[in-house]
Write a structure and sequence with these properties.
alpha/beta; 5-stranded parallel sheet; two-stranded antiparallel sheet; 11 strands; 12% strand
């Protein structure tokens, strides 16, 4: 991971990617714990719902590691959109080659030659002009290529840190034994330190907490909680004060509570407020910012609804209207929202969970996308 040069952003409220510690809020304890685990030979399982800040924490931790050791190799991969071992090889192999391209003093030709056994090819994005790498392997050789990737990491003379985000995705691969295959390579690599992060908490806890699973008790477990409201307010207020403006603590508190402290949604709203307002002292300003976001997303949500059956859409609307549903098949809930048979609800609920439209918390089911939740409420 190349060390990025920090510069002053026009809008400091980033909700995608990572820029520098200047634009990253807190997570001091979490960062220190992550680094301590990794540098002392303990791989880490990092669990939390999506949109709460896992990726930002990982990238911030990698930034701190690179500050301590400029020769450290930090590789981040998100496998959420992979469907099988072949996709996994493509994603991880591509990330390794791109890291080498960004950090090696060798020419691009030498780097591609070094990885020639993976048969990498490079294309140039016509819009950005940036190189894009892919790996061309025979599908029948996928397992061998996975082994060669981990052999390459093991043979590195540097400390290597690999974060595999949405790691629970491998449980849906059609190939049998993917967990055992990866575990068989990872457990013997002592210079490579892994973060396995995931958003489906029950799946992750099963993967790393069940004696029947290959990764059983192989990592230190970390659960990411929302940022502390007071610390987050100080962070946000500082940027408004820097432009001789103001962010009301009461208004920020209402914004924080509305999204339960989920960083991505709060950052998205703060980004709009910072763009439009100098002084944020009335919650109506927050509502206007949210409406602006919903306006941008409206066509996306309309299209999404078209791909749902009537039963699925009605159940999704009912969950949004209720806020949180502990027993979606209860007579009271079914009667209140005039839903179909219990078997139909069960099928619809499984589809909505599979599509990540609803999420099961400890207290019950909620609409996963908080902006979609507000959009649905406004339709009713």
């Amino acid at each position: 991971m190349a060390k990025k040069k920090s510069y002053q952003l026009k809008n400091p409220f980033i909700y995608e990617g990572y820029e520098s510690p200047d634009y990253f809020c807190d997570r001091i304890v979490e960062s220190e714990n992550l680094i301590a685990h990794l540098q002392n030979g303990r791989n880490v399982t990092l669990v939390s719902p999506r949109k709460i800040g896992k990726t930002g924490l990982i990238q911030h931790t990698f930034h701190l590691i690179k500050e301590q050791n400029k020769d450290a190799v930090c590789i981040y991969v998100d496998i959420f959109h992979t469907h099988n071992q072949y996709d996994f090889v493509q994603t991880l192999g591509k990330a390794i080659i791109q890291e080498r391209l960004h950090n090696s003093r060798s020419t691009m030709a030498k780097v591609l030659k070094f990885f020639s056994l993976w048969r990498p090819t490079m294309t140039i994005d016509p819009m950005t002009g940036m190189p894009s790498i892919s790996i061309n392997i025979e599908r029948a050789h996928t397992e061998h290529t996975i082994k060669s990737i981990f052999d390459h990491l093991a043979n590195s003379d540097k400390e290597v840190y690999v974060a595999i985000d949405e790691f629970q995705t491998i449980t849906d691969y059609p190939e049998q034994g993917t967990e055992a295959l990866l575990r068989s390579y990872i457990q013997f690599i002592h210079n490579v330190h892994f973060i396995f992060s995931g958003s489906k908490q029950h799946v992750m806890y099963e993967m790393f907490g069940s004696p029947k699973r290959p990764f059983y008790q192989s990592t230190a477990m970390m659960t990411l909680e929302p940022l502390h409201k007071e610390i987050y307010y100080d962070f946000a207020s500082r940027f408004f004060q820097a432009k001789n403006g103001e962010m009301s603590e009461d208004v920020f508190g209402q914004l924080y509570d509305r999204f339960n402290g989920y960083t991505w949604y709060i950052q998205s709203v703060l980004n709009r407020l910072y763009e439009r307002e100098k002084r944020v002292t009335d919650y109506r300003q927050v509502n206007e910012a949210i409406l602006s976001i919903l306006s941008d997303k409206s066509s996306q949500y309309d299209t999404l609804m078209m791909f749902l059956t009537e039963n699925q859409l009605n159940l999704l609307k009912a969950i949004a209207q209720e806020g949180i549903v502990s027993r979606p098949q209860s007579k009271e809930f079914v009667s209140k929202y005039d839903l179909p048979t219990l078997s139909s609800i069960k099928k619809a609920l499984e589809v909505l969970k599979e599509k990540d439209l609803v999420y099961q918390t400890v207290d019950g089911y909620i609409v996963y996308d908080r902006f979609l939740d507000i959009w649905l409420k406004r339709m009713l």
